[in-house]
Amino acid sequence: MLNPSASIYWSELAKKLKPYVPGEQPKDKSYIKLNTNENPYPPSPRVLEAIKEAAGKDLRLYPDPECTQLRKVAGEYYGLAMEEVFIGNGSDELLTFSFQAFFDPGRIVLFPDITYSFYPAICKLCLIDYQTVPLDRDFNIPAQEFCRENGGVIIPNPNAPTGNYLPLHNIRTIVESNPNRAVIIDEAYIDFGGESAVSLIKDHSNLLVIQTLSKSRSLAGLRVGLALGSQELIAGLTRIKDSYNSYPVDRLAMAGAIAAFQDEGYFQETRGKVILTRERTSMSLKQMGFKVTDSQANFIFISHPEVKADILFGRLRETGILVRYFPSPGIDNYLRVSIGTDKDMETFIDALTEILS
What we know:
By secondary structure, the protein is of the alpha/beta class. The protein folds into 2 domains: 23-42 and 265-356, Alpha-Beta Complex (Aspartate Aminotransferase, domain 1), CATH 3.90.1150; 45-262, Aspartate Aminotransferase, domain 2, CATH 3.40.640.10. It is built from 11 helices and 13 strands. Helix 6 links the parallel strand 5 (153-156) and strand 6 (183-186).
């Protein structure tokens, strides 16, 4: 436990920060982990082979600071030029770089009031003012509320922790309504449903799309994220990166990421499994009386009309199943449940049936 007197060395900024709290990673026993949105399936065998090949004598050398080969491969995959692709150490690093590159203190940044809780943490770290936009009663994002004066916009699509998807025509409206401000679309879960905003980049120089290989490509342990946008935006990100660390992505991560993009068949197979399991699980929960949002992510957001979420959370943990509970206004009677294998979700449904009975 931290000695309370340790804070005497902290800056005033450090004292005021409220850090992001990640999902529980217990070590006391084995759990079915449905709390951190990890992919239940392993990476492509080609990824593992590429990493093994990269783990040679060249590890004594610094990696390519420009991630040239990975940017070329990713650019080809998304139909973009290499200069329109930026690689980072996970999408959270890219979000931090983006806030610093495109948002200014004193100008209010807009994002949903129920969303990824890392956003306010970054704002406080970067001394950026922000204002949250309320979702409607069904947790949908009101696109028109992001079409007013602001210092920048960031929207996760699908949203977290709700899983709701904002249609592409709404994204286009928001981007076109903010021609002189950066609009960031955080697409960490886009591969599990919906249409990516990448197709809008060619016609909108203010649009930045951030994706990750952690979820749909089963590489959460490798830490690779991508920012896709105009050359002007990518240059801004590069300027921030090179002021921190010119070598954020290591050789093994780049090799694995390239292989992941090159094994399209495996990617489509595993994402398809997750989608099918999500739909089957959602149907089962609705039949049990649960309210389930129309998630397009690799998780579902559920609430029971009679049993409180915190009670369900505790009882599930006792049975060895971890889900995510957020004691926050508006969602404190909901659980976010990551999609596991069919066997994982059957065990989850059986446990809920026992708890409710």
